[in-house]
């Protein structure tokens, strides 16, 4: 539970509120290849990755487009499902055998209503995830492929050696050939 507690504490949750929050987390273990979240479903759960790597992707015509990676200490959820109660557009696949902790939206909303420290922590968590999303969007729109790769290796050092190059190329919006050429420049 060390990685999960580290993530929760980073955003200022501690003391009795931390203890209460942790007591409501449910541990799950799932194998590599498991689809934790499936497109078209309503998934009102937040997951904390304790061990393993995941990717979020969308099916587009004849290919999968990866748009997010998560590793130890990261959180994952379907934004549309969790916040709006609508079917999500993404699939989240585990790329390694994984251990995660989860908490449902209903339990979390109850905590928000009864514990101001947890409510503020939840706000900080959403702000943090929004900033990360904006950074990915800006990178994709305004940076070269080489700059995006450099950002990727700085942001996801744990992921680089643990996932297929095709997923990384998809995430960066480039072909595997282009990724190989860029990687050769960094050697």
UniProtKB/TrEMBL annotation:
UniProt source species: Dyadobacter frigoris
InterPro entries: cNMP-bd_dom, cNMP-bd_dom_sf, RmlC-like_jellyroll
Pfam families attached to this UniProt entry: cNMP_binding
Record's protein name: Crp/Fnr family transcriptional regulator
Domain of life of the organism encoding this protein: Bacteria
Upper classification of the organism: Bacteria, Pseudomonadati, Bacteroidota, Cytophagia, Cytophagales
Cyclic nucleotide-binding domain location: 12-111
Cited Gene3D superfamilies: Jelly Rolls
């Amino acid at each position: 539970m060390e990685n999960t507690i580290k993530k929760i504490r980073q955003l200022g949750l501690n003391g009795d509120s931390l203890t209460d929050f942790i007591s409501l987390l449910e541990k799950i273990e799932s194998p590599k290849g498991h689809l934790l979240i499936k497109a078209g479903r309503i998934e009102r759960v937040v997951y904390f990755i304790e061990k393993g790597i995941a990717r979020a992707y969308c099916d587009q015509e004849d290919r999968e487009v990866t748009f997010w990676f998560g590793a130890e200490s990261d959180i994952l959820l379907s934004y549309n499902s969790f916040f709006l109660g609508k079917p999500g557009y993404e699939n989240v696949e585990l790329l390694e055998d994984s251990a995660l902790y989860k908490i449902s939206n209903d339990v979390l909303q109850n905590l928000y209503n009864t514990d101001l420290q947890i409510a503020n922590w939840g706000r900080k968590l959403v702000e943090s995830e929004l900033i990360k999303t904006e950074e990915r969007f800006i990178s994709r729109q305004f940076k070269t492929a080489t700059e995006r790769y450099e950002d990727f290796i700085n942001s996801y050092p744990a992921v680089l050696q643990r996932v297929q190059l095709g997923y990384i190329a998809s995430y960066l919006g480039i072909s595997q050939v282009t990724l190989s050429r860029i990687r050769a420049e960094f050697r």
